[in-house]
Design goal:
By secondary structure, the protein is of the alpha/beta class. The protein contains 7 helices and 8 strands; from the N terminus they run βαβαβαβαβααβββα. The protein is globular. It starts with a strand and ends in a 13-residue tail after the last helix.
């Protein structure tokens, strides 16, 4: 059988966590001898939808929820995301899901091995745990919220965020000019991907990479909201 395996995780706050999922996928794939890819329900790339698109020619896709500790949110949203993907792609691809990684008996064995294995003595000092610079609020003129919740991620928030960041970098606009913050769900999910600019209170709906670049050009660089957008509350 032409089988693909997807390790499905949620976003974490540091890129090293994302890299760890991809490294785990590479090790598992080498052991199983089948293609294994890491993907994310929200907040990171590739999204579960994008990974399913890449695996659409497989005979079967096996999803492995890779969260520790167990996360009912991920369990629930994997099922919702797969159902949405099937409907959107009109696909009958066989997709199955395993028990969560956190519930696998071998996980306890791995912890026992770690306790019995080599240890590293911890010492040193806290280093830059606090700094006067970290008491300063950035001088940004605008803050941009980019929704990276599960629905907006499925609708393409990843490429939107990348296009926005690249365009701001081209304009030389850093955190002291425009502070871009990836968020969880902003709630009007049917309108996603969502990009919100404060303090202007402008909500951009159904944003694609082209619109993201125009927001960076017109609104964030030149100060003019694009496409006639006005504050949500006038």
């Amino acid at each position: 059988m032409n089988r693909r395996v997807l390790l499905v995780a949620r976003s974490v706050t540091h890129h090293g966590g994302h890299d760890a999922i991809h490294r785990l996928a590479a090790v598992v794939g080498e052991s199983l001898g089948v293609p294994v890819q890491g993907c994310f329900l929200d907040g990171a790339e590739p999204s579960l939808h994008a990974a399913l698109d890449a695996a659409a020619d497989a005979g079967q896709v096996v999803l492995v929820p890779t969260h520790v500790p167990p996360d009912r949110y991920l369990d629930t949203w994997i099922r919702r995301a797969v159902a949405h993907w099937r409907q959107a792609r009109a696909s009958d691809l066989p997709i199955v899901v395993t028990a969560p990684l956190a519930g696998q008996p071998a996980l306890a064995g791995a912890v026992i091995e770690a306790v019995a294995g080599e240890h590293t003595v911890l010492g040193g000092n806290p280093g830059p745990f606090r700094s006067p610079a970290w008491s300063q609020i950035t001088r940004h003129r605008r803050q941009v919220l980019v929704c990276r919740g599960p629905r907006c991620s499925a609708y393409g928030a990843g490429p939107v965020a990348a296009a926005l960041a690249d365009r701001l970098a081209e304009h030389g606009l850093g955190d002291d000019d425009v502070l871009v913050t990836a968020t969880g769900c902003l709630f009007p999910c049917n309108l996603g991907p969502l990009v919100v600019v404060h303090p202007d209170d402008i909500w951009y709906q159904h944003v694609d990479p082209d619109l993201a670049r125009r927001i960076a050009d017109g609104h964030l660089r030149d100060g003019r909201p694009v496409d006639g957008h006005e504050p949500r509350r006038s």
